[in-house]
Amino acid sequence: MSNHEQTAPSQPTFAVRNTIGKGKEPTPQDRGGSASDVAFREYCDKNYNQLLPIIAEKFNQKKERNDKLKEKIGMGSSGLAYPDRFYAASSYVGFNGPSSSINKKFSNDAALLLYALYHQATVGACNVVKPTSWSPVEQTKWTSWNGLGNMASTEAMRLFVKILEEEDPEWYSRASDFISEPPVDVEMNHNSKAELLTKSEVTPSETRTVPTENGNSLETQDKDIVVEEVSPADVYDQWVAPSVSGPSPKPRYEHAAAVIDDKMYVFGGNHNGRYLSDLQALSLRTWEWSKIEVKTDAEASLEVAPCAGHSLIAWEGNKLISIAGHTKDPTELMQVKAFDLQTNTWSNMKTYGKPPVSRGGQSVTLAGTSLIIFGGQDANRTLLNDLNILDLETMTWDEIDTLGISPSPRSDHAAAVHEDRCLLIFGGGTHATCFNDLHVLDMQTMRWTRPTQQGDIPSPRAGHAGVTIGENWFVVGGGDNKSGVPETVVLNMSTFTWSVIATVEGRVPLASEGLSLVLNSYKGEDILVSFGGYNGKYSNEVNLLKPSHKSSLSSTMVGTPALDSISAAQNTTNGTRDIELDYDADQERNVNEISIDSNKTQTYKVDEASEQFLTALKAEKEELESTLSKEQSLSLQLNQELIEVESRNTNVYKELQSVRGQLAEEQSRCFKLEVDVAELRQKLQTMDSLQKELEILRRQKATSEEAYAKQKQTSGGVWGWLAGGPSPSDDESDS
């Protein structure tokens, strides 16, 4: 059989992309190669069917070597993206078909949860009838599946993989049979050999064990957060793990934390796909954990539902406000609950106005006496970007209509308030991507802007946490659905400049999603305290960092590009400005600052740049004085108009008094008329009674007259008797 008549072999199971074009034969000029290349490609086209088995054999040999290498060194947790990672995990566990069973190596609780999450991810919410009590195993499976409610399939996939990684951290390295290899490009070279272009294998960092203060050990990779025998207050810009005591809380993420009286309170969260409702407290003086026993037998107490993705705010020194969050049975509108630390009871806080829709993953920021709520994800997994404000003094909701371009809908972002004037939104994500954009809302003009970020701009992330110290915003953790973020960054909220202050490596809690971060003081200095999170494993570890950044800056930067961009975007001017001018000849920058000190008599020599700056200030001063003069003139005009209005008000008041007098007279006259009417009514009633008596007398008279006439007709009387007529007695006897 000739080459042209030979039957093509069946396509191999792996994907091989042929780089040689089909159809019209290109010219050497089209290919951009030499004549020998053209001849070689023609040879490959003609003998493609013979070359393909050779290429496949070499590829299989390379694949076998890679598989053996994977078994030795293992693979990272970010090898596959979802949903392929979920399918590989479910195949590894044993879900190969309807009749398959979960591997026996898992505990009953883990096996039930994996069963429920698998069906939630592949089928959806439980849609089968509850089995009878005669089938206890099936009934237990049904209960576990039905307990997930309306959890989204994507969330169920992620939780399935997370639980598997907890139960079997090395599953991925042993799951090569369940993981399909990506397509590999095959390129022909001059020597008639096929070389496979594959990614270079990267050996993971060497794992080592570092002892901690409490005698425990922690596996780390390269640089880690734990420093041996180091006090939390001894080092700056480095994460350390304090020695904690007491019963540790259950590992979790998407919880909320707040600080009151040197205690960090942790409420709720997510553990193995289950929402939590416990309230834990960590003393930031003794580093001892304790569980808050919530009283539910009180008359006004409330039993809160387990939740995650909510926010916790310290208020009035003895209350914790829990707002929003995901629950198993979500409500339509956002709920606000308060925990009283004196009575240890939960209660619903009554609000007024229209509350926003229920959600989780939002940001809640305290500005003065108001809570600013932005974004999040509702119960239907719809991402939001609305802005709502809750006044904690009046407990009134207000939905804000903003100007400018709002941030795109997102959840699991971070927010901060600077000088009770600007709201900053950073990062967050959707169902498919994460952001690293920065948005600023001027809360006086309610206009959104997007300033230019400078310095070490952070990578996209979601699930991070942040706190502010002065004009510095510290951001920790987060991830991009592939790996956690190892850097701890700080943003100067005046210049919008980022910088990295600490970096961790390996799968440590600080490179996690859904961790919490609070601010407190330790031995007179500010410290950041993180707790929990998820990075392939749920965490309940506590870490702290003492930043070296100053809480506030003594001078204001002049001519900063970031501030100029904000000013240009907002197109607003400040009515009054307080300018502090500092002079420092040692600055490497070309920004010249002038210091005015009333206690010093020394006169500084001003260079050309400073003179230009002073000229600009003088021009601005003249402009402000001109504006002030106009404002004063307008004020005088308004005062004159006010006097005229007051005069008119006086005349109107006099007229009102006159009308009131006339009205009083009319009221008196009406009263007299009412008295006369009452007397007339009484007389009328008397006349009615007299008329009735007269009618009775008339009837009696008529009756008497009728009787008399009748008697007169029946008897002639005395004169008839005298005339010889019959007497009345005779008539009676005859009858």
From TrEMBL:
Q: Which InterPro entries match?
A: ACBP4-6_C, Acyl-CoA-binding_protein, Acyl-CoA-binding_sf, FERM/acyl-CoA-bd_prot_sf, Kelch-typ_b-propeller, Kelch_1
- Ranges where the record places region Disordered: 1-35, 703-735
Q: What is the name of this protein?
A: Acyl-CoA-binding domain-containing protein 4
GO CC, sorted alphabetically, is:
cytosol
Q: Name one GO molecular function term.
A: fatty-acyl-CoA binding
Q: Name one GO biological process term.
A: lipid transport
Polar residues bias (residue ranges)? 1-13
Sorted alphabetically, the keyword list is: Kelch repeat, Lipid-binding, Repeat
User: For this UniProt entry, which residues form the secretion signal?
Assistant: none
> Can you tell which superkingdom this protein's organism belongs to?
Eukaryota
The organism encoding this protein is Tanacetum cinerariifolium
Q: Which family does it belong to?
A: Belongs to the ACBP family.
